[in-house]
Design goal:
mainly alpha, single chain, about 100 residues, Methane Monooxygenase Hydroxylase, Chain G, domain 1
């Protein structure tokens, strides 16, 4: 345990920061889970979920909870999944649209 007054204060500050960082990391994990579930579902819902994740990750990186490149990498991977999932839907809808077969 800390012996000096400044070390005691630093320990208190670290505790508060750790709790705050843990809360932000939990928000990131939940947002990413929701986005991955939404990618399999409706396209509009997954787009909104992706925007929410991007916002959450950018906010966490600006606060210093995660590294900016970590946030960028996660956003890139999620957006790649989103676009890969929405692409086959668009092509299958165009093939099954009325009037295209003839």
């Amino acid at each position: 345990m800390a012996n000096h007054k400044s070390a005691l204060k630093r320990a208190r500050q670290s505790e508060v920061q750790r709790a705050r960082n843990r809360m932000v990391k939990t928000k990131i994990k939940n947002a990413v889970k929701q986005a991955r579930v939404a990618v399999g579902g409706e396209e509009q819902t997954s787009g909104e979920a992706l925007k929410k994740v991007m916002s959450t990750l950018h906010r966490a990186s600006s606060k210093g909870v995660i590294h900016p490149r970590n946030a960028a990498r996660r956003i890139a991977r999620l957006s790649r999944q989103f676009h890969a999932a929405s692409k086959p839907l668009a092509t299958s809808e165009a093939k099954s649209a009325p009037g295209t077969e003839g």
